[in-house]
Design brief:
Distance between the termini: 37 Å
GO molecular function, one term: four-way junction DNA binding
CATH superfamily of the largest domain: P-loop containing nucleotide triphosphate hydrolases
Keywords: Nucleus
CATH topology of the largest domain: Rossmann fold
Low-confidence stretches: 67-75
CATH class of the largest domain: Alpha Beta
Strand content: 15-25%
InterPro entries: HRR_RAD51_Paralog (IPR051988), P-loop_NTPase (IPR027417)
Subcellular location: Nucleus
Protein name: P-loop containing nucleoside triphosphate hydrolase protein
Number of domains: 2
Number of strands: 12
Radius of gyration: 21 Å
Helix content: 25-40%
């Protein structure tokens, strides 16, 4: 945690810029000083400096809710496949129980199919699924149609219908209410194994006038709620989200239109909403209408680093609605 870059914390841009100019780049740099010293070095108000220290302490508390990657590997070996061979390969045969998978991609990519494939895996394992759609992209009937395609009988179809719960939400207020009620919902539904948050980016986009501080508060609440649920109940989570363009300087730091040296496509919202030590971020990058690559952006053993190349990449192709391993490019 001490080597964690400051830009991965939920800090106001002005504060982050002041800290960077003063030579503070990691959590270790901050915790080795005092709020008064940081305020003087970065020319920040004392209350802004104290807020930085509070942000580092929040991350430490979140870390206590999660286990290290090595400890988690020993605690559970249960994995669930997504039905997407390239993603399963990137995850080393599937997503571990109690972990989070974020799948991002442009409109029309197969990210919803990945979420539905994961849902079918949990249903086959006799675990309930809660599917939360945030953009009216996937209806309850579409979810059932997909997961029952391979049902062996009408009784299996009826059983799946009783195990799938579907709801919609579209605003930040809806999302906050859902997060508040989730712990209670998990107690009332102990068989719930998978939570699908489809189009998580949409409430942030559709809520006009959302301030930076309010946005950060929602992201923090999302991270804390998911971390608690995964740690205490073993809930697995799959999230689909959109991509946005981010400008970077030559050294990989955030840039503006005037200073940017290059642009990259990144998932939205930012990674700060994901529970540390439990989350995988995968990006679908189409190259043609039916083929492309799947990239591992970060994982519990490979933290997110802006501007850095993907940790792993697998080709894919779409064949009759199925996502298969594609041919590798010639070296």
């Amino acid at each position: 945690m001490s080597r964690r870059p400051l830009h991965t914390l939920a800090l106001p841009p002005a504060t982050l810029s002041a800290l960077t100019r003063a030579g503070y780049e990691t959590v270790r740099d901050i915790t080795s000083a005092t709020p008064e010293q940081v305020a003087a070095d970065a020319r920040l108000p004392l209350n802004a400096s104290q807020a930085v220290f509070s942000a580092t302490q929040t991350q430490n508390k979140m870390a206590s809710l999660t286990q290290s990657a090595a400890a988690m590997a020993q605690s559970t070996s249960t994995k669930y496949c997504t039905g997407c061979a390239p993603i399963d390969a990137i995850l080393d045969d599937g997503l571990k129980k109690g972990f989070v998978l974020e799948v991002s991609g442009p409109p029309g990519s197969c990210k919803e199919s990945v979420a539905l494939g994961m849902a079918r895996t949990f249903l086959d394992d006799n675990q309930d699924v809660l599917f939360v759609d945030m953009q009216n992209m996937t209806t309850a009937s579409q979810v059932l149609d997909f997961v029952t395609k391979s049902a062996s009988s009408s009784s299996s179809t009826r059983r799946y219908a009783d195990m799938v719960f579907h709801t919609t939400l579209h605003t930040i207020s809806d999302l906050m209410v859902f997060l508040h009620k989730l712990p209670w919902y998990l107690k009332e539904h102990p068989r719930l194994g998978l939570l699908v948050l489809n189009s998580l980016w949409y409430p942030f986009q559709s809520t006009a006038g959302l301030s930076y501080s309010a946005r950060s508060a929602v992201l923090d609440r999302t991270r804390e709620t998911l971390a608690q649920a995964c740690a205490t109940t073993g809930l697995s989570v799959i999230i689909t989200t959109q991509l946005s363009t981010k400008l970077l300087n030559a050294d990989g730091s955030p840039a503006t239109f005037d200073t940017g040296a290059r642009a990259v496509m990144v998932p939205q919202p930012t990674h700060t909403y994901l529970p540390p030590g439990r989350s995988h971020r995968v990006m679908i990058v189409p190259r043609t209408r039916t083929a492309g690559v799947v990239r591992l952006i970060s994982s519990p053993t490979h933290p997110y680093e802006p501007g850095q190349p993907a940790h792993r990449e697998e080709p894919y192709e779409m064949v009759r609605g199925c996502v298969l391993h594609g041919p590798r490019a010639a070296s």
